[in-house]
UniProtKB/TrEMBL annotation:
GO terms for biological process: tetrapyrrole metabolic process. This is TspO and MBR related proteins. It is a multi-pass membrane protein. Belongs to the TspO/BZRP family. PANTHER family: PERIPHERAL-TYPE BENZODIAZEPINE RECEPTOR, TRANSLOCATOR PROTEIN.
């Protein structure tokens, strides 16, 4: 497969731009996160940026592979990816800005289902595209767990 550099660059830039925007919108809320009661498995706030950077790049590469595929399922998979990006954008705003941990948890569960379906659908189109989303799916699982624990510990 010959790499189409412009679509690849766009595919990586889109999730990174979403991440930068939501990071900018929620940057003043990280002090609140540090003050929350968190489970022992919680990472420090600064670790999230590094993890998300890697995950956004992997999502971008994976979406590029699907975008340039000739699969009849390509458009459906890309719609699911768009829904995924929207949820990834909304969740931190609800969690950090509005501090609505229950609503954020509901969104996290929906996101978990979308991420699971997206990994499955991407894998059917391209095994590689699906496999490189597994770290993202694991992270969404961890984030949902962390959200639930914060909800329970900060009533």
């Amino acid at each position: 497969m010959q790499i189409k550099w412009k679509p690849l660059a766009c595919s990586i830039t889109i999730p990174l731009a979403f991440g930068l925007l939501v990071g900018w919108l929620t940057k003043d809320s990280m002090d609140i996160y540090e003050q929350l009661n968190k489970p022992a498995m919680a990472l420090p706030g600064y670790a999230f940026s590094a993890v998300w950077l890697i995950l956004f790049v992997l999502m971008g590469i994976s979406s590029y592979i699907i975008y340039v595929s000739t699969s009849p399922e390509r458009e459906k998979a890309m719609r699911l990816y768009e829904i995924n990006l929207l949820l990834v954008f909304i969740w931190p705003i609800i969690f950090f800005l509005f501090q609505s941990y229950f609503v954020a948890f509901v969104i996290a569960i929906i996101l978990w289902g979308v991420a699971f379906t997206m990994v499955s659908m991407f894998t059917q189109i391209s095994k590689f595209a699906g496999w490189i989303l597994l770290p993202y799916f694991i992270w969404v699982t961890y984030a949902a767990y962390l959200n639930l624990q914060i909800l329970m510990l900060n009533k």
